[in-house]
Each structure stands twice: as structure tokens, then as C-alpha cells.
Amino acid sequence: MSARRLVLPVLAAAALAVGSAVALPGAHAAAGDGSPTDPNIRFVGRWDTANSAAYVPHWAGAYFETGFTGTTVKLKQRNTIDLYYSIDGRTETYLTNVGGTVDLTPTRLAAGNHTLRVSYRVVAGSYHGDAVFQGLVLDPGAATYARPVPPKLVEFVGDSITLGSTSSRTALTAYGWLTGERLGARHTQIAYGGGCLVAAPDGCNGMSNQFFKLGTDPNGPNWDFGRYQADAVVVNIGTNDTSHGVSGATFQSTYTTFLRNVRARYPNAAILVLRTFIGRYAAETQAAVNAVVSGGDRNVSYVDTTSWLPAGGLSDSVHPNDAGHRAITDRLAPIVAARLGGTGTPAPTTPAPTTPAPPPAGGCAVTYAVTNEWTGGFQADVTIRNTGGAPINGWTVQWDFPSGQRISQAWNASYTQTGATVRATNAGWNGTIAAGGSAAFGFTGTFTAGNAKPASFTLNGAACA
Fold first, then answer.
1. Into how many domains does the chain fold?
2. Same domain (yes/no): 279, 311
3. By residue range, what is the domain housing residue 199?
4. Do 307 and 172 share a domain, yes or no?
5. Are 84 and 115 in contact (CB under 8 A)?
């Protein structure tokens, strides 16, 4: 897929050194007027704010949001652009090739307070059109107002997979955007199509260098990390490096240095390093994480993504489709939430039903696997196999933790925990296990005195292998 290069506004030479959000002299706006410098408008991600009359977003996941009063809102764009917008939290509306003063409320709203979020469509990492925000137009007498700021910010780093290429709404249907939304966090995707970790002589733009830039231009200005601090950084990179002849040793050493450089910019962020979803450079990625952890950084962890993508979860041999991105989100969001200290609003866990589930129709086996572990916390998957000759219709698995572990949250099952005893019950859609079939659920938890695995399991009151 070809990409049109983002056209930057003409800036004074002194303004090219992008740093803190400094407006041109005398141009700072009053709160509420809808101009780019209006402090009630929150810009998330990497924005070039050197020109106070025209703010330019970079990378895939940048967006802005604000509250406004009145019955209409219009967007001032320099030239034509494709964009998504959402008013009052509704599903995003997609507009193509719109420019000038763009009416976002062809049907007037009810008078009162409203919210707005706008993001620009990307193709292969560049904006599709002229992504230059020049302000909002409101009703006479109306004004913007500041929305509450989510306390956490998550940055997702990667290539076309993190960008959301081949998904229905690109960045908006990619796992990074979906995870941030599920956690109620601010989020941005520092990702572009074809990106590598290692800068290659044949032209692959290496994220080990490009991450530290304002945008995707390798000759562009450096990003000022004083503009914001991420609370978590999720890195998924390496799928494209094999196509550029990068050796395992070079990949591993570059990744190790990259993670240390990220830590230098974000001293307090949790850094989660994903195994690429199709497994390229998996061993080297994990070794890079181990090297950083061995060097004393205990806030970096490797996340094994093996089997995260369901059957039919790819649109081609590499890129997840919408269902694939949703499946990744289901696995990733609880891990990120746990590293953020349980912040955010993941899907609530419903109490287990008080009526007993039917007994198993045959034999059963339960597999318990710790898939990720960090200081004081862990993620585990539980798989139930029906080894009998008839379906199991409804299931409750019970076990005792041997080391005082506590579950923080679960997915694909509801649970209760009393002391060491845990009871996990099927969700509404996975309660039937055909003969020879299986069902699985996962959870994150905490521990203080070890993380030994449970010794035994029961299914609907009967012992399982």
C-alpha cells in the first residue's frame, strides 16, 4: 500500500526544533475559544505545536479531545484529509477528503454540554491527506471546556501490526487503541507500516532510532520526552527485520540497547515487550529483556504471545484482522492493567452463580500454565479438556493456591476467591465443551511468597487429571 508523505506547514527555522508546546509570541489563546492553543483541548500523542495556528499530529495514534457547549461544532482544516470523529462517545464517524471548515454536526445537537474526539486516518504511517488542525468553530456564545484527564497513558510501539494495517479502521481497530480504550487510559501508537527494529542499509527505517523522533521522517526533529511521560510502554517489533537480513545477534543487541534507551526517556514506565505474534526473533527478544532485567531494571517484562491469535484471526499471513486485534486485546489488557497497578476500567468480573453446575459428563483434564511473571505479579492460563464421551454443559473449576496468590481479574470466566480457594465458572458463551474439546480462560494475579502451581483441580465437584 502506498503512502502519501505528510506535508508539514511552513515553519520558521527557529521553530523546527520541536520541544515543549510553546506558542508563537502573542498568539496564546484564551480558554474556551477552540483555537489550537486552547488549553481545554487535550492533544494525545506526538503533535508538532511549534505553529500556534496549526497543530500537526504524527504517528498513528494521535488524537485530540475536548468538551464543548452549544448545538454545533465545526473543524477547521487547512486542506483535505480523511478523519474519524466521535461526539458524546458515539461510534466514530468516518469522513473522507474533507477540508476547510468541516461540519461535524449536520444535525444539530440538543443544547448543553457535549464531548468531541478527532483522529486522522493513517496509511502506512503517514496521514492520508493534510492533517493540519487549525481550530474549532462553535455556536455564538458557546465555548470549550476541559474534560477529566485519565490518570494513565500507555504508548504502543511497533510496525504495521500495531498501526492496524488491514483492520477495518486502521489505528482505531488495532489492539493498542482497543486496549487503551478498555483500560480508560490515554493511549497512542508509535507505529508505521514496514517498520523494523534495526535500521537496514536497504532503507528499512529502524525503530531503534525512529522512536526518538517527532514523526516518521528519519531526518526530522527529535521528540521532546518532557512533553509527556508514559506510564506503560508496550513494544511489538521485529516482524519485518527478517526481510532485511538482520541476524539474530544484531537484533538482540539492538533490542537490548533500545530498551535501555527507552528507559532513559521514561524512568518510571512499565515496559512490556511482546513476542511478535508469528514468533519471529522470539528467543532474541526474550534474551534482550533478560539482559535488561539482569542489569537491574525490574520494570521490564517479556510477554509470551504464543497462541494469542485465534483461528481466522489474520487477514493475511502476518496482519491481524478485526477479530485478531480483539483477541489480542482480551489477552493484553489485563496484563497492562496489572502493570499499571490495577488502574483503568477493564470488563468487570461477575460473581459465580450460586446454583451448582451440572456434573461432568465424562473424564476431564485441567492444564495450568503461568504465561508471564513479573515482580509480585503474574498471568496464567487454564485449559479444561473434556476427555469423556459426552458434552460438558456448564463448568466450574476449583483449586487451592499453595502460596497465598490472589487473583486480580479474569477473562473468559467469572470467579470467586475465598482464602486460597478459587472457583472459576464459564462465561455465557463457552459453557459447553464437546467430547474431546476444550475451553480456556485466563487471569492475572499477585503473590508475595512464591508462585507455585496448584496441586489439583476439580471440575463440577469431580477430580480432574
1. 3
2. yes
3. 153-339
4. yes
5. no
User: Going edge to edge, which strands form the sheet with 413-418?
Assistant: 413-418, 421-426, 396-400, 457-459, 462-464
Q: Give domain status of residue 401, yes or no.
A: yes
Is residue 323 domain-shared with residue 188, that is, in the same domain? yes
419/280 same-domain check: no
Q: Which residue, among 88, 95, 75, 87, has the nearest Cα to 35 in the 3D structure?
A: 75
Cβ(162)–Cβ(176) below 8 Å: yes
What span, in angstroms and rounded, lies between the C-alpha atoms of 187 and 31? 24
Residues 6+ apart with CB under 8 A from 142: 68, 69, 70, 71
Asked if residue 313 and residue 394 are part of one domain, the reply reads: no
Beta bridge partners of 445: 378, 407
Q: Is residue 4 part of a domain?
A: no
Where does a domain end: 101, 119, 145?
145
* Closest alpha carbon to 287 in 261, 328, 250: 250
Q: Which cell is 446 given?
A: 499477585
- In three state form, how does the secondary structure of 180-207 look? HHHHCCEEEEEECCCCECCCCCCCCCEH
CB 243 within 8 A of CB 164: no
In the sheet where 438-446 sits, what is the strand order?
Answer: 364-374, 377-386, 438-446, 406-411
Assess contact for 454 and 412: CB atoms under 8 A.
no
Lookup result for grid cell 503512502: 3
For the question of whether the overall pTM of this predicted structure is more than 0.85, the answer is no
Q: Which of 83, 118, 145 is the last residue of a domain?
A: 145
Same domain, residue pair 267 and 129: no
CA angle 338, 342, 347 (to 5 degrees): 95
The interaxial angle of helices 175-183 and 322-339, nearest 10 deg, is: 50
Choose among 52, 23, 24: nearest CA to 36. Answer: 52
Contact indicator for 126, 3 with CB cutoff of 8 Å: yes
3-state secondary structure of 415: strand
Written as tens digits, the pLDDT of the chain (465 aa) is 333 333 333 233 333 333 333 333 334 456 899 999 999 999 999 999 999 999 999 998 999 999 999 999 999 999 999 999 999 999 999 999 999 999 999 999 999 999 999 999 887 667 788 999 999 999 999 999 999 999 999 999 999 999 999 999 999 999 999 999 999 999 999 999 999 999 988 778 899 999 999 999 999 999 999 999 999 999 999 999 999 999 999 999 999 999 999 999 999 999 999 999 999 999 999 999 999 999 999 899 999 999 999 999 999 999 999 999 999 999 999 999 988 874 333 333 333 333 444 445 458 999 999 887 877 888 888 999 998 888 898 999 999 999 999 998 787 788 899 989 999 998 777 788 888 888 888 888 889 888 999 999 999 988 997
